[in-house]
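Hey, I'm writing a tutorial for new members on how sequence and structure tokens pair up, and I'd like a real worked example in the thread rather than a made-up one. If someone can provide the structure for the chain below, I'll link this post from the tutorial.
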Amino acid sequence: MRNQVQLIAYADRLGGSIAGLDRLLAGPLAGLIGGVHVLPCYLPYDGADAGFDPADHRAVDPRLGSWADLGRLGTSRDLMLDLIVNHASVHSPQFRDVLARGDSSPYAGMFLTFGRVFPAGATEADLLRIYRPRPGLPFTPVTAADGSRRLVWTTFTAEQVDLDVADPQSRRYLLEVLDRMAAANVVAVRLDAAGYAVKTAGTSCFLTPETFAFLADLTMEARRRGLEVLVEAHAHHRRQVEIARQVDLVYDFALPPLVLHALFTGDAVPLLHWLEIRPHNAVTVLDTHDGIGVVDAGADQDEPAVGGLLAPAAIAALVERIHGNSGGASRLATGAGAANVDVYQVNCTYYDALGRDDRRYLLARLLQFFTPGIPQVYYVGLLAGCNDTDLLARTGVGREINRHRYGEEEVNAALGRPVVAALLRLIRFRNTHPAFTGEFAAGLSRDGRLALEWRSGSSAARLSANLVAATYTLAWTAADGSESSVTDVGDLPF
């Protein structure tokens, strides 16, 4: 993937379809985006988990387009798609066949059951050790047509039954998806929910050595097809460092809470510590289709004595500040306040998390774009979107608060807002300035300002920020060797 700002979006919520998203990127956003990650557009894209519960993700939902449409979308920009490695929909043809035919189904081994992992049964300690991003245990009872009953493994919801990735049918299924992607101009694949893919008795069943072995094998298969691999896993920061050693790219999910902490408190020390130890082969984010992760900056889930980048009190204060800045909307969408309960995130747009403060929002984007890695901007964040409390109220699903559906007129209106126009100028600066291909340095100046710098040969880009006041100076070397600077990215000549 090229070292330029990438967009992540649902095709139905920005553009209305794959072709509509393509028209938007070729029209009002022309020349702005180096690549696009199209969130699940498989069959069906509007299931129980906004496309992350595919009945068959070898097939593009015809209501959104086709593999050919995706191929066209990827002809002039980097294209990324999701490989949903952990599960499939209970409505998939394979699982329906298992329910209809039981053990005589050719797909009987494709879906994971309690008994497959615990053939001799499980103790209370075994069950309590399992890590799950939802309350309760990850099992759902199902009854086959012959009356036999079993507990299938359902990490996320009862609509998403986990695959046994060691089964030949599961492996064949996943490799067929990679083949479809490689034929459609896809350059990178995101392994969704990868940390939960392998379950091993006596462990947390999350990012175990067996999981890493599986990821290594799948990464090799993807690379054989010319695909880069991005692993998606919300976990303790040391796990991200470990994952980064084995794959092409890893998400920097610790960055969003660290940036918020810095802007809320003026304390840049945790952020600077992370900048020293984090992997540079990362995709940097502030917002995604999920919420604002906090577990990534906290203590290890398996070993609570292993501290995080932020102390528990700092994380609690961060969450409360988000709830306050959002007028309480994020509280309604998070935890027990809504369905699709998550234990590791706050559901809120990043713009609302910062109290709709344009200056702090643009400074947050500056911090993201200066952090080493490939920057990715969520479509709601690109348009400085606010919490969609109406969509939350209609669906009762917490994550929907940050998944607004934009019509063409609404997109055009958003592009005319000063904060969005300034962000687009900043994106062009990040995409085109040669300093970002060089060396990075970070620290505190004598007067306590956060100082970030990129330098490549004679080209330099420097950010000096007063986090408390949310004031900053962005300076850079122009093409003719002269020095320029702004104190507002809206004034960038890009």
